[in-house]
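User: I'm new to structure prediction. If I give you an amino acid sequence, what do you actually give back? Let's try with this one:
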Amino acid sequence: MKKASQIYREELKDRSRAESLAKSVGIENSIDAIDKMYDLASGTIGHKWDIGEKTPRTDHIRKAMGKDYPDSALIASTFTDTVVAGLDELLDQDLEKAERLSYVMTEVASIGKLVGNDLGLTRKQRDVIGKYFYDTIMMIAGMEVNYSNLVRNIENEDKFLKLAKEFYGSRAAVMDVFIQLPLIELDYDMRKKEVKNIIEVARRNRAIGMNRKDIYDRQIDIKNNTRTPYTEQKGKKLRCYGRKLANEFLEELNSYKFKDTKLQKFKNNFYKMSQEEIRRI
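Assistant: Good question. You get back a string of structure tokens that encode the predicted 3D arrangement of the chain. For your 281 residues, that looks like this:
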């Protein structure tokens, strides 16, 4: 199974449109520079995926779906993945100028491929990606600003867990497009209740992973002035709160039942993956 980083790099090898444009405006001598910029873009996120510093959301869903994941969703999902990963880095990290440029180039290259339809995406794929960036990503950004202020200096455990659950439950919507794209290719109707429910399952699985990651990234987040529920907590509370929160999400995930055998199989895999995450807290 090809990794998301391989798929991304292979697609970015086609620089024909950029090179053709350079020739048409009389700047053929800039083609080498254009190639270097593409190499910069393809190497930035791909490298972090390769070394395990970041995990592609696409590969996460592929793990849950196994052999049922449709190849026809891979390109759309992978390029959407790079845009979201690049946004994370631009917003969360204290980057040097050259490093920031590399992430900007990643964004430009990926978005250009998506909206320019160089990738040959279907109308349904483009629609769900467009809705994701216009609605879901904007909702998550607004929520993070609001909740990062609310969870500061909360000593009451119940209140903290309630707010933290809302925080991670909302942020987990970042996974929506990555399960919607393969479901569309498998001819599932996004309006059906069971399809909406498997998206909820994927969200809870993602919430558990984000919860665990923020516990272990606490010092990095403090250094980068990135607020999470755990940047305000100390000592034994971190893992204690983290496990309680993760188990609440796991219980909700497990409550979903599916008549569709394929969706039930996906849910079972998400459950096992979530258990693995909790064991690592």
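You can read the tokens as a compact description of the fold. Here is one thing that stands out. Residues 122-281 form one domain.
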